[in-house]
Specification:
It is a single chain. About 10% of the residues lie in helices and about 35% in strands. Strand 4 (about 60-65) and strand 5 form a beta hairpin. It is built from two helices and eight strands. The chain has about 160 residues and is mainly beta.
């Protein structure tokens, strides 16, 4: 059985919608992870947007958030299960673990429901002795969006004429 993260990323997407970029707190109904979730507080230097789509018959949301001044970028992919979103993959860059990497679920059906990265595995594995420090390479909201759309293969297929 194919890993859920891989299936959601490689399958065709439909009903793609991009929210506008915003700053500050992520409202609880935008990316609900569990009952009683009060949203995610971030400072005003953080920018975020949500990309909504369907893949594998599941409603998915991709939460992009980045802070250029801190060199942090995160794209969190989750799917809707009974009104709450389960995280299956996080693509990120941040100085505490230099270089681009993913945290992904090894499960075929379940995701995780919080940001603690429990049950998510890091790829590539982090090795302080051999890990190279790369530049983030994202300076604008357009670049942040384009990177996520390409990595998560989000594009609607047009009709052949």
């Amino acid at each position: 059985m194919e890993l859920l993260a891989k299936a959601l990323i490689t399958s065709p997407k439909t009903n793609i919608q991009l929210s506008p970029w915003k700053s500050g707190k992520l409202p609880p109904n935008t990316f609900p992870l569990r009952r009683g979730c009060k949203g995610v507080s971030q400072g005003s230097s953080w920018r975020w947007r949500i990309i909504t789509f369907f893949s594998q018959g599941k409603e998915c949301r991709l939460w992009l958030n980045y802070n250029y001044s801190k060199l942090i970028y995160r794209a969190t992919l989750a799917f809707n299960e009974s009104g709450f979103f389960k995280i299956v993959c996080i693509k990120e860059f941040h100085p505490s673990e230099p270089g681009w990497h993913c945290h992904s679920s090894m499960r075929t059906e379940l995701g995780v429901s919080d940001f603690t990265h429990r049950m998510l595995h890091r790829y590539p594995k982090f090795d302080r002795l051999t890990h190279s420090v790369a530049a983030m390479g994202i300076e604008t909201e357009q670049e942040a969006t384009s990177f996520a759309l390409q990595f998560f293969r989000i594009e609607e297929k047009g009709d052949l004429i």
